[in-house]
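# nightly structure sweep
# worker-07 picked up a monomer target from the shared queue
# config: single-sequence mode, recycle default, output format = structure tokens
# input follows
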Amino acid sequence: QVQLVESGGGLVQPGGSLRLSCATSGFTFSRSLMKWYRQAPGKERELVVGITSAGGTTNYLDSVKGRFTISRDNYSKTVYLQMNSLKPEDTAVYYCNVLVDGIGYWGQGTQVTVSS
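# output follows
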């Protein structure tokens, strides 16, 4: 079955960095568009960025442009989100997502808290 497991979140000071990982199994990762979403408290889940099977990226959320970078490793079936220059407004639960045979799958999420 499809499984997505996020990791790498935590508490970081403003200006700091984190690298999120999403380990996957149960589908053909190398052919799949992978996405990172986030959901802040009291807000709707929003798309941060996606990465195609060939490594091309979709548009980044405006508020993260120039600070976040998505990447993937098809050998380890893992997608990453490098987050630099973090701001308090980046505080959210971050989720990876994939669409397989018309069904959307989500991981359990990883909490990112940016605070001094």
